[in-house]
Design brief:
Layout: E1 5-12, E2 15-20, E3 26-30, H1 36-40, E4 55-57, E5 64-66, H2 74-79, E6 83-86, E7 92-98, E8 101-104, H3 107-120, H4 125-138, E9 142-144
Antiparallel strand pairs: 1-2, 2-3, 4-5, 6-7, 6-9, 7-8
């Protein structure tokens, strides 16, 4: 993604202007207040010269973080996801892109979603994730966070 997102201006206070190589758009992003320390530590992407300049990995868990998640570019809002849902063959079945927004890539997952959505009402955060992942796993899907 480093070839797609190039930082063309640093505005200070962890604010940057990012140029999208494909669309030609320039968008302002800002490091999330709770990700500044992680952003400052570039060690986790030292061996990844093509990584997006805002990607970091948590040293303890290995989890990947977008350090500008709250203001990330539009391209990322459309295509990046929190949960990746794979069918039993390992093929993409759908994505959870934002909080509890599911984008199904198969009719089967769309139908399952329609059936189970009411049972998830009232849940949020990790509770929602855990409940939905349990449902998906029981139905034969695999989920990557
Ligand atoms: S979601 Fe964040 S880390 Fe991923 S490509 Fe977009 S800006 Fe970079």
């Amino acid at each position: 993604m480093r070839d797609v997102h190039r930082v063309i201006e640093e505005r200070g206070d962890y604010t940057f202007v990012v140029h999208n190589h494909y669309t030609g758009d320039a968008e302002e992003v800002r490091v999330d207040p709770n990700r500044i320390a992680l952003f400052e530590d570039r060690s986790s992407i030292e061996g990844l010269p093509n990584a997006c300049p805002f990607l970091r990995f948590d040293g303890e868990t290995g989890k990947a973080w977008c350090t500008v998640h709250l203001t990330r570019p539009d391209l990322c809002r459309e295509y990046c996801c929190r949960l990746l849902i794979l069918d039993s063959q390992g093929k993409l079945a759908g994505r959870v892109t934002y909080q509890t927004a599911l984008i199904p890539d198969t009719d089967e997952l769309g139908q399952l979603w329609e059936r189970v959505q009411p049972t998830l009402d009232g849940l949020c955060g990790m509770e929602w994730d855990d409940a939905f992942i349990t449902i998906l796993t029981a139905a034969g899907y695999r989920v990557r966070r």
